[in-house]
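Sample intake sheet
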Amino acid sequence: MTDIRIINTKNRIRMGMINALKEKPLNEVTTKDIIEAAEVSRKTFYTYYNDQNDLLFEIENAMISDLVEGMKKDREAVSQLDDTADQVEIAKLADQAFVETVKACAKHREVTRILLSANGDINFLSKIKKAVYKELLARAPKLVAANDPSVQNLKKQLPVRIPLDYLFEIYVGLMVNIIQHWLTSEDPISQRQVRGIMGAAQILSPLQLLAFADLPEDLNDIEDYQF
């Protein structure tokens, strides 16, 4: 059994790094900064970590692991879809298919906000995208909706083939951007609302999503909207 004192000490060191990142960019953060922010001794820091990169890897790896585990649990809901499932069924399933995923993201909200900020790790977002992409490939057979007549009709009218690297940017980028915006928003919506948005985004084009948006009556007001 892991000593609770060790867990508490390592958590202090982790938060020491996060607090240090609130003050300066990652490439300027030193071991000394982390030690001072965590209020631990130099000896204590090096008992658990080789350097700040070792610490950063542990922080990010823990978050990615939770995300992957959440997506894996949610995949069970997706596996219940049969081959006749249409796009609407897939969208409605979002309330089950993203539950643990969104929970995992919410669990690390504060740390994620910092790591995705200008002071954070520019590689962290890529790690998240790769994890989501692997999950997409695992779910793909159930999400294709190949038997949906509307999809088949579109394929006939729009004979476009999408290479996997473009699929990565389109689908994964969209889903990750939704989560990223939710996590970094000053006034975040509920977990259920964000799941609904992710479900709709799976089956609708950006233009179709406009029909579900709370657009101002006077579209000129959108110029004053604070993004």
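Comment: The CA atoms of residues 37 and 128 lie 27 Å apart. DSSP finds 13 helices and no strands in the chain.
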